[in-house]
Design goal:
The complex is a heterodimer of chains A (111) and B (112). With 111 residues, chain A is mostly beta strands. Chain A contains no helices and 11 strands. In chain A, strand 7 and strand 8 form a beta hairpin. Chain A is globular. In chain B, 0% of the residues lie in helices and 54% in strands. Chain B starts with a strand and ends with a strand. In chain B, strand 7 and strand 8 form a beta hairpin. Chain B has no helices and 11 strands. In chain B, the strands form 2 sheets. In chain B, strands 2, 4, 5, 6, 9, 10 and 11 form a 7-stranded mixed β-sheet that branches. Chain B is mainly beta and 112 residues long. The chains are: A mainly beta (111), B mainly beta (112). At the A-B interface, strand 4, strand 5, strand 9 and strand 10 of A face strand 5 and strand 10 of B.
Chain lengths: 111, 112
Amino acid sequence: DQQVKQNSPSLSVQEGRISILNCDYTNSMFDYFLWYKKYPAEGPTFLISISSIKDKNEDGRFTVFLNKSAKHLSLHIVPSQPGDSAVYFCAAHRAGTALIFGKGTTLSVSS
Amino acid sequence: KAGVTQTPRYLIKTRGQQVTLSCSPISGHRSVSWYQQTPGQGLQFLFEYFSETQRNKGNFPGRFSGRQFSNSRSEMNVSTLELGDSALYLCASSLADSKEQYFGPGTRLTVT
């Protein structure tokens, strides 16, 4: 049973526009959420995170929003750049357990 | 500070053989986790080690095992390899209580 779901396998956006990547989760015990970015032939790199006690966290062009009642989080990238083209993974943490990752969304930003 | 290193980067094995992968965490990180990535399946958790003890284990068969040494370096072993074990194996390290994990570049295992 998938506890963390990224329902869109891919997303295409034009350079300069906003990219919105979505993630849904089922376990209300998750207390921390993270986004990772992965380029081919490299390991995932940490991008941004949010605690379950917050509803928004911003870091430069990247903002993560958390809607606990809907068990939904999203990553906004504004403005999108061609270098943002990568696979984005959403991950969730619960005390005493390992991170649980979604299957990823491939973002393509065209110039 | 050096990042997480994994060796070897690429490996080709035959069905039935066994393989050992190595991971050196970031200096000061005591937790090491292993993941398997296959196309369309995301990152599937294998196990986590902290201070030489397995702290968490994923839903993989007993052919997959691991260990951690006193210097926090970790190894994972897969015995009796199957074609379906072909994947990218990722190692990640973190501070003892940090939720943020830092990944190595992975080992690409191909089983023929």
